[in-house]
Design the sequence.
């Protein structure tokens, strides 16, 4: 049993991208589904599919690679807020990743979103991870 399912989710994506896998399958949860939707909307993954045939379900993610260099679009994906040490940021203190080239995923009272969307809605929250 693992104590941090979000860190496990991010690690599976990171390892699959470094190993040049086309598809990675991950056990599902509502938080993981929201993070997956954000990664797809921001162009970090090619596609995804939620499989709810079992009790927990799973998420199948097709990773995206650069056509010329064959490198993964996801250069790095880091967990920020951990179960032992939560990291929160107010609406004015949300982080910018690589001067706007990357994204920070934030869990707010209005749902899971990128730091840019949170700044527009003027809400803060728990900084879950950085993706670039």
Sequence:
């Amino acid at each position: 049993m693992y104590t941090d399912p979000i860190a496990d989710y991010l690690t599976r994506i990171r390892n699959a991208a470094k190993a040049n896998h086309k598809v990675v399958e991950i056990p599902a949860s509502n938080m993981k589904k929201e993070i997956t939707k954000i990664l797809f909307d921001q162009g970090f993954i090619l596609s995804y599919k939620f499989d709810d045939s079992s009790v927990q379900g799973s998420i199948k993610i097709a990773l995206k690679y650069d056509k010329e260099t064959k490198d993964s679009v996801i250069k790095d994906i880091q967990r920020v807020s951990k179960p032992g040490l939560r990291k929160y940021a107010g609406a004015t203190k949300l982080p910018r990743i690589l001067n706007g080239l990357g994204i920070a995923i934030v869990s707010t009272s209005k749902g899971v979103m990128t730091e840019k969307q949170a700044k527009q809605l003027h809400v803060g929250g728990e900084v879950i991870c950085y993706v670039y």
Summary: The chain has three helices and eight strands. The longest helix spans residues 5-18. Helices lie at 5-18, 30-41, 115-121.
